[in-house]
Amino acid sequence: MKRRQYLGLAAAGLTGFGANYYLSDRQRELDNPLGIPDEKLETSNFWTVSVLPDTQNYAVEDELIKHVEDQVEWISENKDTYNIVFATHEGDMVSNGASHEQWDRIESALSCLDGEVPYSVVPGNHDWETTNDKSSSIDEYLDRFGEKRFEDKNWYDDVGPNGLSHSQIFSAGGREFLHLGLEWEPRDEVLDWADNKIEDYRHPTLITTHSHLHKGILNGKRADQLEEENSQGNHGKKVFQELFYPKQEVFMVLSGHSFGGLLPRNRGEYHQISDNVGDQPVYEILADFQSRKGGGNGWMRNITFLPEESGYDKISVSTYSPSARKNQVGEPSDFYFELDFDERL
To answer: If pLDDT is split at 50, 70 and 90, which confidence band does 195 have?
Structure first.
């Protein structure tokens, strides 16, 4: 069955695997924060990547930073239960890149990941001293989350040419994966570096970058205009064309930054499936909850990979708040993809 045919049937509730599993009724009680029935987890050699969307509003106040502390504590406490093999922050760590206090708060909260799971932190446009201006200082990020923080970790691979992009290697499901964390609106030299990393490793590759998809009132698309004041960088549409489209190793792109949407419960959520040069799917996923109550109310994403004997990997994407101890279910918060790593490489 073709991929799009399967997704269409699943959306209609006509596949045995997805009918009352991934496509959640909003009133359904979930077995666990991943939104996956416990019996599936008991029989699958699954693994999970946890995603922290924009934390900028949390960093503003001591009371709100508790949401990040709750997220990180949940990852630490559940890394074995849900086999969390990697965590990634989508950028905009702080609201005001010039605020030492905000950087202190977010660094203290994220430090609890050290020694727990491999993780990545990319800078967003608010993380520069002057928002949207790459000619301004980003020393706070470099001092706290630059190469020196990670260089002694066995999962840390390399740093990009300007110190703002990083690569990590993690193992899961009997495979090695390459993760590339790319600066906001990555510059040409960063794209060249990323291209070389993918070419060198030839592993399935997961990308995190701050701005890639933009959510409008009803729908979304790739960013097609630069926001950087000095035109230093590339927007999502160009990055896809120059890096993600020709590199068949890239199977997923995660981003934040954009929090638009007509309905409050759907703001800052969007995903799309695109084809690469080999007609293989690239899953592009946006999550940014900063417009929700409490600066985001602690919502985070968990991406769970469930291998099946058929040779396909079901990728389940769920939205959970450790602070509220609740899942947000139903599209566009609770969905799944299919992927066959054997076919790709």
So the answer is: very high
Structure tokens at 182: 């790319």
SS (H, E, C) the chain: CCHHHHHHHHHCCCCCCCCCCCCCCCCCCCCCCCCCCHHHHHHCCCEEEEEECCCCCHHHCCCCCHHHHHHHHHHHHHCCCCCEEEEEECCCCCCCCCCHHHHHHHHHHHHHHCCCCCEEECCCHHHCCCCCCCCCCCHHHHHHHCHHHHCCCCCEEEECCCCCCEEEEEEECCEEEEEEEECCCCCHHHHHHHHHHHHHHCCCEEEEECCCEEECCCCEEECCCCCCCCCCCCCHHHHHHHHHCCCCCEEEEEECCCCCCCCHHHCCEEEEEEECCCCCEEEEEEECCCCCHHHCCCCEEEEEEEECCCCCEEEEEEEEECCCCEEECCCCCCEEEEECHHHHC
Q: Going by C-beta distance under 8 Å and a sequence separation of 6 or more, which residues neighbour residue 187?
A: 162, 232, 233, 234
Q: 76 and 68 in contact (C-beta within 8 Å)?
A: no
Distance of alpha carbon 37 from alpha carbon 267, whole angstroms? 27
User: Rounded CA gap, 88 and 106, in Å?
Assistant: 14
Domains of the chain, each with CATH number or no CATH: 3-344 (3.60.21.10)
Q: How far apart are CA 260 and CA 138, in angstroms?
A: 27
Is residue 120 within 8 A of residue 168, CB to CB? The reply is yes
pLDDT at residue 194 tops 90: yes
pLDDT band at residue 261 under the 50/70/90 scheme: low
Model confidence band, residue 256 (pLDDT cutoffs 50, 70, 90): very high
Percent of the chain's residues with pLDDT above 70: 88
User: What sign does the dihedral 306-210-292-286 (CA atoms) show?
Assistant: negative
What is the amino acid identity at position 308?
Answer: E
How many Cα atoms are found within 13 Å in the side-chain-facing hemisphere of 339? Answer: 25
Could you give the count of Cα atoms lying within 13 Å of 84 in the half-sphere of its Cβ? 24
